[in-house]
Amino acid sequence: MTARARALALRRERLIERGDRLRAELESEGRDLALRLRVADRVVGIVRSGPVRALAIAGAALAILWYPRRLVRIAGRALVLWPLVRPLLPGLVKLWRERSASAT
User: Fold this and answer.
1) Of 12, 16, 18, 24, which alpha carbon lies 20 to 30 A from 40's?
2) For the chain, what are the domain ranges?
3) How much is the pTM?
4) Residue 94: CB atoms within 10 Å
5) Rounded to whole angstroms, how far apart are CA atoms 63 and 71?
6) DSSP-based three-state secondary structure for 1
7) How big is the chain by its Cα radius of gyration, in Å?
8) CA 48 from chain center: how many Å?
9) In the chain, beta strands by DSSP E
């Protein structure tokens, strides 16, 4: 075996060891991240469920009936913020569609 071939074989072995070590680190970090996000996934799942949506709609209907002046005041503030929010909407819609497409 030539010196160049030995050097390449040694380099290959080191790269394989480094790849194995990095892969193990990624797996470990992925498990840690999954544990941290488990609670968030459960909360999002509950919020997206049918009964919670029905409660939110019922709460909005009650707010409209019981606090119409407050809602008009909030709507006025929202109109003031509309020029700031409007440029963000295409990105939010795209993000929403990507999330819903990946969920199915």
Assistant:
1) 24
2) 1-47
3) 0.38
4) 10
5) 8
6) coil
7) 27
8) 14
9) none
pLDDT tens across the length of the chain (104 residues): 799 999 999 999 999 999 999 999 999 998 888 888 888 788 777 777 778 788 888 888 887 788 778 778 888 888 888 888 888 888 888 888 887 777 66
33: which residues sit within 8 A by CB, 6+ positions away?
none
Residue with tokens 């913020």: 81
- Alpha-carbon gap, residue 52 to 81, rounded angstroms: 28
Distance of alpha carbon 91 from alpha carbon 99, whole angstroms: 12
> H or E stretch including 2?
none
User: Residue 93: helix, strand or coil by DSSP?
Assistant: helix
Retrieve residue 67's tokens.
Answer: 């606090």
Look up residue 15 and give its two tokens.
């790269």
CA distance 92 to 11: 47
